[in-house]
Amino acid sequence: MNVAKTCPLFVLLLALSCNAWSHHVLGRPAYNLNEDSNTPPSMQVEVQIGEFLVNSMVFPAFPDPNERGRINVYATSSDTGAPFQGEITFSAKRDSWFGGPERVLGVQAPYDGVHRQGFEFDRAGEYLITASFDVNGETYHLDFPLRIGEPAFDPVAVVVVSLLVLLVGISLLWARRIQRDKVRLAQKAARESQ
Question: How far is CA 185 from the centre of its chain?
């Protein structure tokens, strides 16, 4: 048997057969991922609030409108390291100049030391999530932003950018006018000195 003739055929068959397994190379296929999967969070916030170290995460990484997501908050005492066993209230509002009313997403007790709150927003945009809890009569708040869907143009940002472009344009026109006046004065002075 001639190896030179069969080798390309063998390589072609091997390449075609490996292609069938390519979507499972790194574990679970991508179409099977949801908010309960091991995907990375879109954001992770670690802060100290009073006597607590608070770690919060939002799943999935890029939530879309009408897609379920989840917020995980893990609070521990900075002194003892014991997890917070009280309830945490989760609320959300639009993060804009005219944010609108704040709506309560839910009140969650810990499960395995983690407070989990599901969410689903029907409109794309920027939101401000607030997790608040009471300890010994003192209320603690943790605010963090959440983007739902694709980023949109903010009307305030458009106005600010337009004003900046206008101011730069006006300053360039004034600089050109001042330069032109200097040239005219220099030419006039040169004509008068002759």
Answer: 56
Task: Tokens for 105, please give them.
Answer: 């997403």
pLDDT digits (tens, 9 = 90+) for 9-39: 666 555 655 544 444 444 444 444 454 555 6
* 29: amino acid identity, one letter: P
Instruction: Kindly tell me the burial class for residue 153, based on how many C-beta atoms sit within 10 Å of its own C-beta (0-12, 13-18, 19 or more).
Output: exposed
Side-chain-side CA neighbours of residue 130 (13 Å): 13
Per-residue pLDDT of 103-116, as tens digits, reads 888 899 988 888 99
Q: Which of 135, 117, 120, 37 is nearest to 74 (CA)?
A: 117
pTM recorded for the entire structure: 0.58
Dist CA 27 CA 31 (whole Å): 12
- CATH number, span 15-148: 2.60.40.3340
Per DSSP, the residues of 125-192 read: EEEEEEEEEEETTEEEEEEEEEEESS----HHHHHHHHHHHHHHHHHHHHHHHHHHHHHHHHHHHHHH
* Domain range list for the chain: 15-148, 153-194
In angstroms, the CA 70 to CA 104 distance is 14
Q: Which residue bears the tokens 């993060």?
A: 95
Q: How many CB atoms within 10 Å of residue 108?
A: 20
